[in-house]
Amino acid sequence: MGAGKKMKNTAESMKGKAKEATGKATGNESLTVKGKAEQAKGDAKQAGQKAKDALKH
């Protein structure tokens, strides 16, 4: 996986975790859900890149 893509996907997951934590702390259900969605999106992108890398080797 390219370092740039890995960092971008990891950042997206971390941003989602932060939003989820903020949403839980403030009782904002919408923010919590958005955070979980961002985490899932980042994790899915990372898994896709890892699969691509595995097929290349």
UniProtKB/TrEMBL annotation:
InterPro entries noted in UniProt: CsbD, YjbJ_sf
Every CsbD-like domain range: 6-57
Signal peptide from the UniProt entry: none
Domain of life: Bacteria
Regions of compositional bias (Basic and acidic residues) in chain numbering: 35-57
Gene3D superfamilies registered for this protein in UniProt: YjbJ
A Pfam family per the record: CsbD
Region span, Disordered: 1-57
Similarity comment text for this entry: Belongs to the UPF0337 (CsbD) family.
Protein name as annotated: CsbD-like domain-containing protein
Organism: Kitasatospora terrestris
